[in-house]
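Re-run requested by the PI after the first attempt was lost when the workstation crashed. Everything re-entered from the original request form. Ligand of interest: adenosine-5'-triphosphate.
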Amino acid sequence: MLSVRDLVVAYGHVQAVRSVSFDVPRGSLVTLVGANGAGKTSVLNAVAGLVRPRAGRVLFDGNDITGTPAHRLVAAGLVQVPEGREILATLTVEENLQLGTWHRRGRPERIPQMYHRFPVLGDRRHLQAGSLSGGEQQMLAIARALVADPVVLLLDEPSMGLAPKVVDEVFRVIEEIRADGTTVLLVEQNARRALRAADYGYVLETGEVAHHGVAADLLRDERVIEAYLGLE
Ligand code: ATP
């Protein structure tokens, strides 16, 4: 579904991503994990068309989409939930969801479905989004992406800054989205949690893939445990 080949992302002289390759098969949940600054967001932004890669290719459903601008990729079904959620605080919950419908893929009729799926958003639909808790704002950011009817959902650090119970809820939603047939590429610092949810994982270290494999195997890999997972 999504294939990234020899991706290089640089900001001036800083090489954030050096020759990263990975695959996201249709219907799977693949995660990129790694420490702060490992290059995860840069990879995701290059895939989503927000950053132009210095080199390498991104293939989506067999088409070369390298360097295609984000708005065209959203229209094709590649939809990102950005790091830090980026909801519009002074707009209402409903207005934020309407923003997910601006392009031809957008489905206004999915907004009521989102209230069904996330009742807390339905209850607060007329409130300013900025008044929601961090977890509710994350749900809103995910719901706004789902309104755009994604083929592939790109999630950047959805558990960032959330309490453990709320993190559980966010991961339950991610697993449901995947169970509904949406392909998911998940970037996370919470490696253990992400690998538990994923089929396949890639561990990034200073802009390169240090380990990759079936997620369950990575969770048992001594090198990965020592460097990224630690004791529970
Ligand atoms: P985080 O979890 O903190 O977002 P990350 O693994 O997603 O980390 P990136 O955000 O991709 O990593 O950053 C990788 C490297 O690129 C870091 O050294 C970072 O400082 C640098 N970097 C990221 N964005 C820019 C930018 N716009 N300009 C210059 N350097 C950047």
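Saved to the shared folder this time. Residues 11, 14, 16, 34, 36-42, 83, 189 surround adenosine-5'-triphosphate (CB under 6 Å).
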